[in-house]
Automatic annotation (TrEMBL):
A GO biological-process term: L-methylmalonyl-CoA metabolic process
Pfam family, one: Glyoxalase_4
Protein's recorded name: VOC domain-containing protein
Residue ranges of domain VOC in the record: 4-132
GO molecular function, one term: metal ion binding
Keywords, comma-separated and alphabetical: Metal-binding
Lineage: Bacteria, Pseudomonadati, Nitrospinota/Tectimicrobiota group, Candidatus Tectimicrobiota
Length: 272
């Protein structure tokens, strides 16, 4: 069903500061944005901006009420998945028990048609369908750090086998690997459509407030050593001097959250 991950959306307490961070650290360019209407996704509304760097996109959302947001932090909010045709995708999703927050999609400032799933049917997390316009906005595409795509969104989950089974049932997912997690628990990778998800069960799942919690984003770079150098030149730091290889052969190196506005992100070099 899904062709790619179009973007990760973040809540921020200061939109202008977040835009500047992406410009400074990833060489991103602002591609558009504007007011955000009040909705279940953003109660009270607010304003947003889209930034592009390499071949990827991020959406930054400043709610009207930022009192509950930590300062200077990118708080993961949603994942946008690209489909070729929203009505077709909706019809298929409904046969799997999914519902949506509206009957028809809305068009965002980049001309993308967007339709959110009802989080009651997606383990409480926000995801949306995205249909790209015939002439996509290319402002900033190819700029800055050369990230090729978003390989996956990562989630903390209470029980990895149950989470795997959910993706298999709902999205025809294929469990491709996993094992002991470097964070003390266990993990799994599931491919579905042309995208992937990483599921991480912490050492003590009882500490989780919800069954599924957004955790990180994985950015693909053709050569991770080049990506590391590009990031380092822009003042980004990493948690180690060299990448590790995960259970499915991906080389992975996380950014230091002290310099990444508190958000977990990693560079990824795919095997082969």
């Amino acid at each position: 069903m899904f062709d790619k991950i179009q973007h990760i959306g973040y809540l921020v307490d200061d939109l202008d500061k977040a835009i500047h961070w992406y410009q400074q650290r990833f060489g991103a360019e602002r591609a558009g944005g504007g007011p955000v209407a009040s909705s279940r996704m953003v109660p009270g509304g607010g304003r947003n901006a889209f930034v592009h760097f390499g071949q990827v996109e991020a959406e930054l959302i400043e709610p009207a009420d930022t009192s509950q947001l930590p300062k200077d932090t990118l708080v993961m909010h949603h994942v946008g998945y690209v489909v070729a045709d929203i009505p077709t995708a909706v019809a298929k999703a409904q046969t799997r028990g999914f519902t949506f927050l509206a009957d028809t999609p809305f068009t965002n400032p980049l001309g993308q048609q967007v339709l959110y799933f009802d989080p009651a049917t997606t383990n409480g997390v926000l995801i949306h369908l995205t249909q790209l316009p015939a002439q996509p906005n290319t402002i900033g595409v190819g700029s800055g750090v050369q990230v090729e795509k978003i390989i996956h969104a990562g989630y903390l989950v209470r029980h990895v086998p149950e989470a795997i089974a959910w993706y298999v049932e709902k999205f025809d997912g294929v469990h491709v690997g996993g094992g002991a997690s470097r964070r003390g628990g266990r993990n799994a990778f599931v491919n579905f459509g042309q995208v992937q998800v990483e599921l991480i069960e912490p050492h003590d799942p009882s500490t989780m407030g919800h069954d599924h919690v957004m955790d990180h984003v994985g950015y693909v770079t053709q050569d991770i050593s080049v990506g590391i150098a590009q990031c380092s030149c822009r003042g980004l730091h990493f948690v180690a001097d060299a990448p590790n290889t995960n259970s499915i052969g991906q080389q992975v190196l996380y950014l230091d959250t002290a310099i990444s506005m508190g958000s977990r992100m990693h560079l990824t070099q795919l095997p082969g």
